[in-house]
Amino acid sequence: MDAAAEYRQIVIATHNPLSRLSEGQVRIVRELATREDAKVVVASTRNPYDLNDYPQVKTYLCAYENRPMAMEALAKILVGLIPAEGKLPVSLSEEYPRAR
After folding, report:
1. Residue 72: which pLDDT band, with cuts at 50, 70 and 90?
2. pLDDT of 47 over the 90 cut
3. Domain range for residue 47?
4. Contact residues for 78 (Cβ-Cβ < 8 A; gap 6+)
5. How many domains does the chain have?
6. For residue 26, what is the enclosing H or E element?
7. Residue 50 domain-assigned?
8. What is the pLDDT of residue 30?
């Protein structure tokens, strides 16, 4: 957390090789998301359901994989070179239903 203290924009990429994120990843995201002096973006690199573990996150992207092409596209979205046009193919919760 100390390493992130000086930054005002923070991008966190999460990855869950199993069905749930590790408690360590969840703790880091939750702690950074409480910062009022920084814009925090979370990008799931596998499972869109990660958002259910930290609903306080305001900006959330799903890449669905962590292969180089997906990470390059994610980077382009983050810096504004391409728009994020995807639609959520599943329902995460009542607050985040499947996009139509």
Report:
1. very high
2. no
3. 2-78
4. 11, 41, 43, 61
5. 1
6. helix 23-33
7. yes
8. 94
**Residue 50 identity (one-letter amino acid):** D
This prediction's pTM = 0.87
Type of residue found at 26 = V
Number of Cβ within a 10 Å radius of residue 83: 8
Q: Please, what is the end-to-end C-alpha distance for the chain in angstroms?
A: 38
Q: Are the C-beta atoms of residues 96 and 51 closer than 8 Å to each other?
A: yes
Phi, psi of 42 (to 5 degrees): -110, 130
Domain assignment of residue 67, yes or no: yes
CA–chain centroid gap for 7, Å, is 17
CATH of the domain at 34: 3.30.160
Burial 17-46 (b: 16+ CB within 10 A, else e): eeeebeeebbebbeebbeeeeeebbbbbbb
Question: Does 21 reside within a domain?
Answer: yes
The answer to whether residue 100 sits within a structural domain is: no
